[in-house]
Amino acid sequence: MNGSNNIYNQFKERSGQVAVLIDPDKYSNLKELNALLKKTTFANVDYLFIGGSTVLQEDFKSVIDYIRTHSSLPLVIFPGDSNQISDKADALLYLSLISGRNPDYLIGHHVQSAQEVYAMDIEVIPTAYILIDGGNLSSVAYVSQTTPIPRDHGSIILNTAKAGVLQGKKLIYLDAGSGAKESIPPSVIQDLSKLSTPIIVGGGIRSLKEMEKLRAAGTNVIVIGNKLEEDIDFLLDIREFKLSK
Ligand code: 1GP
Question: Candidates 3.40.190.10, 3.20.20.390, 3.90.1150.10, 3.40.50.300; correct CATH number of 6-243?
Fold first, then answer.
């Protein structure tokens, strides 16, 4: 870790920033990846996130190398496991899955990769990672063998986030899971914004309307993955969203 706070300070700066999530599992076709990278720059996307629940280490490495040489956007690792680390990225979200009770995702993977991460020239951001029920079984819930918090249990969500902040987490990532039927309710963000900790929200976000509501509720970074795998032209909507701030 390099002790810098560049990406973190950028996260904190304002609400309504946008990250595009690239799952190396789904972008093995480099031509498609190249088209996506070009369009993300045109759309004024703020960050590229890379990671996935079931990625082979070699795919992760080849995709991250490719992104680094074909895009100048800030690149942030959103790791699915301890193999998804690389000093090619600008920052690593150091996730603790605190909505769950699986020790592997609370500390196990961290211990496995600690020596490597410690020696790496990368910004490391301690992140409270909270899964919220998105109306279907998500890959991350299945792979981590954890149960997401019910979406209408605002007090459990708030207390979980508070516990994360008390443990020293600098960032809160609320995730309904990739391809969620229902994204995180903006009312949850409003509650959590009182903690004055920057908030990232992802999972099942597919429309400009949802993005606008999340920005108004105080979401610092909105993550879009699945929707772009289905419809790359959604980046035109993202461009409009970014221009309308
Ligand atoms: C999932 O937050 C991400 O972990 C993004 O979700 O793929 O549904 O946009 P989507």
Answer: 3.20.20.390
